[in-house]
Amino acid sequence: MTEREANLDVEVEIRDTDTAVLSVGGELDIDTATLLHHHLANQFVHGRRHLVLDLSRLAFMDSSGLNVLIRAARDAREAGGDLHLVAPTPAVRRILEITGLTMTTPLHADVAQALVAAGHTR
User: Fold this and answer.
1) CA atoms within 13 A on the CB side of 33
2) DSSP category for residue 94
3) What is the dihedral of CA 113, 57, 68, 53, to 10 degrees?
4) Nearest Cα to Cα of residue 9 among 75, 72, 60, 82
5) CA separation for the pair 45, 2 (Å, rounded)
6) What are phi and psi of 61, to 5 degrees?
7) Pairing state between β 50-61 and 19-28
8) What does the pLDDT look like over 85-102, one tens digit per residue?
């Protein structure tokens, strides 16, 4: 499933009943953060509590986007799962590090590594 709004692309790949990979590209800002939030919330509604966000195509993220990631990490933990971030671009990685999100949410080099960390073995 792929959805494009303004300057944000979100592709969702369901790996199993507990795990989804969301590939995010473009710009995650005040105009597009709600779209990503809806995609993430939809995964929780459907029982997927291990979420992998591939940020390798995300060129820009502001505080609105950061808030969506913080909320998703919290919601995943509350559901007994986790959020894994993959290959953020240098600009996005800097925001994640400055705000300390990398202290509580794991970063991975690629999706395969994140899936292993999330307990997905297939």
Assistant:
1) 15
2) H
3) -20
4) 60
5) 18
6) -145, 130
7) parallel
8) 999 999 999 999 999 999
Which helix H or strand E contains 25, and what residues bound it?
strand 19-28
Write down the residue that tokens 């459907």 correspond to.
46
pTM of the model: 0.90
Q: Which long-range contacts (CB under 8 A, 24 or more apart) does 108-116 make?
A: 108/84, 110/86, 111/21, 111/52, 111/54, 111/86, 113/86, 114/52, 114/84, 114/85, 114/86, 115/15, 115/19, 115/21, 115/52
Query: What is the CB neighbour count within 10 angstroms for residue 36?
Result: 24
Residue 54 token pair: 């591939």
54-84 residue pLDDT tens: 999 999 999 999 999 999 999 999 999 999 9
Determine the length of the chain.
122
Q: Is the dihedral of CA 54, 58, 62, 64 positive or negative?
A: negative
